[in-house]
Design a protein that fits this description.
- It is a single chain.
- By secondary structure, the protein is α/β, with parallel strands linked by helices.
- Helices cover 43% and strands 22% of the residues.
- Strands 2-1-4-3-5 form a 5-stranded parallel beta sheet.
- β1, α1 and β2 form a beta-alpha-beta unit.
- α1 packs parallel to α5 and α3 packs across α5.
- The chain is globular and about 50 Å long.
- 26% of the residues are buried.
Length: 157
């Protein structure tokens, strides 16, 4: 199984990119992992929030492949402790045949079509984070889950 973090739009702040790159490198020792970036929409000043969600949704759906398990990182999703997320990942590693794709949407969330395509939703926190910040935060939690699964000392209860 391959894990993909699919994100919309680029990250301008260097430190978020550096943090994401750090955890991406760490994760490659445990699982095949990639970050894929859907380019920013153009001419958004002429679009409503709903139009932006729909357009981003079309791009997300084009990226997904047959057989993908699509999980949305969504504030209304299921919450986990780090230990529970490790158990979740362990189960997914045994049941997902191709790709486990975690999706971070744009500033206005996901379109109805993307919600319909997704297998599940996970909330990283009840708090709201910027779309740039959540990328390394999620990658760190995925790394933490891998170290928990392997019984390594990174995580402390």
């Amino acid at each position: 199984m391959k894990v993909v973090l699919l994100v919309t739009g680029k990250t301008d702040a260097r430190w978020w990119n550096e943090a994401l790159a750090d955890y991406t490198g760490r994760l490659k020792h445990y699982i095949p992992f990639d970050v894929e970036v859907i380019p920013d929409l153009k001419n958004v000043k002429n679009m409503t929030e709903a139009q932006q969600r729909i357009r981003e949704g079309e791009l997300i759906l084009k990226y997904l492949q047959a057989g993908d398990c699509c999980v949305l990182l969504d504030e209304r999703g299921k919450e986990f402790t780090s230990g529970q997320f490790a158990l979740y990942m362990e189960k997914k590693m045994q049941t997902v045949a191709k790709r486990l794709v975690f999706v971070i949407g744009g500033a206005y969330g996901f379109s109805d079509d993307v919600y319909a395509k997704a297998s599940e939703r996970i909330a990283v926190s009840k708090m709201t984070f910027s779309h740039q910040m959540i990328r390394p935060v999620f990658a760190e939690q995925l790394y933490r889950a891998m170290t928990i699964i392997r019984g390594e000392p990174y995580h402390h209860e």
